[in-house]
Specification:
The protein is of the alpha/beta class. It has helices at about 10-20, 60-65, 80-100, 140-155, 180-190, 205-220, 235-245, 255-275, 280-290, 295-305, 310-325, and strands spanning about 1-5, 25-30, 45-50, 65-70, 105-110, 160-165, 170, 195, 200-205, 225-230, 230-235, 255. The N and C termini lie far apart (about 40 Å). One of its GO terms (cellular component) is cytoplasm.
Amino acid sequence: MNILVTGAGGFLGGHVCRRLVENGYSVIALVKEKREYPLLKINNIEFLYGDITNISSLKGAVDRCEAVFHLAAVNSFDKKDKNLFYKVNVGGTNNVLQLLKGYKDKRLVFTSTRGTLGHRPNFEPVNELDTATPEDLVDDYLKSKFIAEKNVAEAIERGLDGVIVNPTALIGPFDIKPSPIGKIILSLLQNKLPVYVGGGINLVDVRDVAMGHVLAFNKGKTGERYILGNVDIKIKDFLRLVSKYSGIPMPKIELPYYPALVGASILEIIGKITKITPLISSAKIKTAKLTNFSSIEKAQKYLDYQPISINDTIKDTIKWFKEENRL
């Protein structure tokens, strides 16, 4: 069976490709440029060079495949050109939906984000029945993903065979870019994290989320969405674990919300001048304050989704950064 994976060159996309191949599928990997992709150095992967915003570069692959895993997105809290979020995250998704329109025998697995589910007070976890409010959508990334997920849900109502997955905060090996949480781990390992901000996240191994995509494809019910996460953990406790397994002391100062927000805004201004992406952004601060705890009971019950110990994930992530001489 041929499966088209958009965003195959990304952190999660590469792991999804590997999981699919490991489970006997042939993958058509959509990537934007001809370069080396360490996660994709395996058999049964055919590269398709194209752009999710160019519908003509996708049509032939969609015709040849039995399913589409749509992961391609601008995934960042950085204040880039806001139009890019909507061009890629909404426009690219609409292109996929347009090409799948009319097919009854092709399944879509759409990768959204846990952020479209919003937040609950007092560290209470959200579930798949929750929906973000305008106050929850703190930046154009979340706003664009919310619109894209809504468009997918409407296409499913019109007859598309599709499921939606909502990953939480990813960490794990091969975090080349690195991801937002990977950047925090790397900064601590490099002794470049003098302070931290409170709040909480749901943390998960990228390899578990990749397997969750395969499970959603095989076991997910059309029209349903599934949170793919693992452990709810406060930022302080997460940094304590990274410190424990790396031997690097964690920062001792927890920055209060409003000073952190002001500081992040200043760093964003400096980043625009220097063209250097800041470690922290105002959107991240706002999100941390809201607390991103999440329930994975639905995925566990209906997909047989069983993530590994987050302690092992943190160890593997630290090991990979060290082996890649990122310290």
